[in-house]
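User: Hello, beginner here. Can you help me understand these amino acid letters and fold codes? It all follows right here:
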Amino acid sequence: MSQAHKGRVLVIAGSDSGGGAGIQADIKTITALGGYAATAITAVTVQNTLGVTGVHPIPLDVIAAQARAVLDDIGADAIKTGMLGDAAVVEIVAQALDHAGGVPAVVDPVMVAKGGAPLLAEAAIGAVKSLMIPRAFLLTPNAPEAAALTGLVVETTEDLRRAGEALLALGARAVLMKGGHVAGERVVDVLMTPAGETTFEGERIDTRHTHGTGCTLASACAAGLAKGLKLEEAVAQAWNYVHEAMLRAPGFGAGHGPLDHGWTLRT
């Protein structure tokens, strides 16, 4: 591993008390893939597999201070952003990305928790479009997020591609359009860049244990980039990691359960 790719990932996102998503999933994922996770927490959420019952934002100056403390000492080879909450946080995080000086950012435009609780104010969608998407090395929206960001109907794989083109036009260097919300026996994700596209396809896993899949996939992509993998290689590694983590889900909780983030440590 070169000095430029030490596997350091700064994660800027919310905390999930249930451990299945958010910062907790991010740390476990990055560690399981051989990286080093540092964090700037944007909010503390009260949640379990049944849903979110509380969201407590972190003060803006504290979010900024966490990011700067990490970047000015430990450094980062990639940055992953998740739950941002509102437009003011989006602005602070955009400033942190600029302070990082060209470190590739994986932007997961988190809007709604698996159980349906809103995690991004509707008024903040414009800030994500104008401030986060142009700074994204890789944007990782699911179909509802893509629809919210583009104003397009996103119900099929072709719809995903059209929305992906629109998001590239907004300034993202690459988009991974996630097809989990698109009906069908197979799940098709499409990695799109101005140079072309790559599809990642597999049988849909029949399980309720899907909490944190988006956070996990984005962090796995960031971990690969931080260790020097090319974009397509990082996404392929991430896709396979999440697929196996879903298959090995421990079955915790009565609702949308977590994945097995640590499976790589036992094989």
